Amino acid sequence: LTRIGLVYSDLGEKQKALEYYSQSLALRRAVSDRGGEAATLHNIGGVYSDLGEKQKALEYYSQSLPLSRDLGNRGGEAATLTRIGLVYSDLGEKQKALEYYSQSLPLRRAVGDRGGEANTLYNIAYVKRDQNNLTEALNDIESSIKIIENLRTKIASPELRSSYFATVQGYYEFYIDLLMQLHKTNPKSGYDTKALEASERSRARSLLELLFESNANIREGIDPDLLQQEKSVQQQLDAIEKQRIETISSPNPNQTKIAEIDSGRLALLQQYQQIQSRIRTTSPRYAAITQPQPLTLPEIQKQVLDDNTLLLQYSLGKNRSYLWVVTSTGLTSYELPKRADIETAARNFRDAVTSPIHRDIPQQVAEASANLSQLILQPASAQLGNKRLLIVPDGVLHYTPFPALTIPQTPRQNTNVPLIVEHEIITLPSASTLAILRQNYGDRKPPGQTLAILADPVFSPDDERIKGKITPATTEKLEANNLGLNRALRASNRGWPPERLAFTRQEAQTIFSLFPSASSSQKIDFDANRTTATDGSLANYQIVHFATHGLANSKNPELSGILMSMVDDKGNLVNGFLRLTDIFNLKLAAHLVVLSACQSGMGQNVKGEGMVGLTRGFMYAGAQRVAVSLWSVDDEGTAVLMQKFYRKMQQQKLAPAAALRAAQMEMMQQEKWKSPNNRAAFTLQGEWK
Questions:
Q1: Which of 150, 277, 127 is nearest to 201 (CA)?
Q2: Which of 273, 374, 489, 671 is exposed most, by the fewest CB atoms within 10 A?
Q3: Model confidence over 524-576: pLDDT tens digits?
Q4: Is this model's pTM higher than 0.85 or not?
Q5: Is 184 exposed, middle or buried (0-12, 13-18, 19+ CB in 10 A)?
Q6: Interatomic CA distance for residues 468 and 462, integer angstroms
Q7: Helices (H), 355-501
Q8: What is the pLDDT averaged over residues 363-374?
Q9: What is the DSSP string of 93-130?
């Protein structure tokens, strides 16, 4: 009954939760389960607090507290004391809240509840900040952050580490805001520097550690049995995935069977993650890895920037947001509007650029662009000049096409000039990420071959390239497989089978013609398949170019991927889905990977981690920089952009970031392509040099 109450409480059905807790409480008392009674009273207090009935919450907490004390349950006592403190804080009785938190803190420490200790210190800091005791608040939140940093390093699984880190992002947000409030009162004390460094510590840490790990062979010295277990589970996952597609694809799918398969798949995924964790914890190579520390301001200035490059780092907050503009010699900080205001403007802008209804109405696009630009760029406009911009976004800004934004207006200047006219633009998960990418790539010998292209795969049995070569049995099987994939594709709002991207062939052939054929490889039609992508041959190329459909899933990034050929030249069904897990296992040495595919820069936006999707997979696999798209792009328009992009690199010898900007600016001059929807979807992530 208690557990059912907890579920209803999590679902937001508070009254239903109370009904179950009340039934449980009577039974707890009937059997004299005083520990259970204390816990249930605590839960009821929590529901009343959530409902805003603070006095009633205090009544139940006050009944729970002496029971925990009598039983010597110091952990339970500490939790209830903290809850009482929260209620008094909400009631505005800050000093009383502080008294209860101060009673809770030594109990948390006594029972070794480090997470609870961090939480209580955060609550104490929050109250002290409200009492305008900023310096003491700073000491407490820094003690809390220190515990969090220690706890997260003890988690071997990157997935669990990211999950834990997401739950404590509020602590970092509070810490950053507190430092910036102190900066207001003491502008020469370096609090803005500490705030920037706190922002850097709060983001993309798992990616940073994965990139650091990718340079070490952590499987060396591992028990062969453990490696065999890993291989076995991978094979089982492949088998169960095929089984699931076959079951879902049948004319009358058996829902019970599907549920069993899903349950089995979940168990296998958990087993796979556990094996990965065991490999890390038992690997001599992994044990020798010192956890990478995010860069400090002087390190960012020295390792990431030059005189012509600015770092724009954003942190969006509940009450206020912040922008730090870092040059090779200085730092300037700006207070921006609250997160909700920026989110509204960013969504309106993205919708204006991408919506078929609005994107060809220049006035609407211009207004939406100007509104967002005024919020997030205008305060720093005097600093921007014509410099290169390295942008570290936060929250909704991960989805924002900065190249489509306009230069901020001034009172004397009412312009609608795109930002890329004056700036080369690169996005980064964090400044520290770029330093690790450079470190990983610095000692690496460049691959001997120049360019590998995989383009224009065969998706459908109706494709003219396989007509007459496919048997009725294979057609039936292929249609069933297509239906199964349709479920995954629907998650990204795309139907199956996808249309052939006719211009990708022209795109590939034009790009291929720019490079010496002896050092290049072009895989089109049936050869643009998953086997080609995963057989290790791509490690030999400096540039790897995919021209096909992309599949982004914001809820389940492991369902993201790239669609390759689904049929071979004999008409046989093949697995044509290059999943994110496949990409993580690629071994590349490319200085550039281009994903000329829809939504290839999208994924799951994880708090504190940023966008988890294909870009991170390719960076882990060894790519120094990745060109990706932020929305579904026009086939022909993409082909035109890519041809211009490669010409700028090959014929004018421009670096990829500069070449992409030049190609986008050239498209702006052509009536057919001047809409931001056609030219601004692609962005470069990673190395700018």
A1: 150
A2: 671
A3: 889 999 889 999 999 999 999 998 888 776 666 666 788 888 888 877 767 78
A4: no
A5: exposed
A6: 10
A7: 362-376, 381-384, 431-442, 472-490
A8: 87
A9: -HHHHHHHHHHHHHHHHHTT-HHHHHHHHHHHHHHHHH
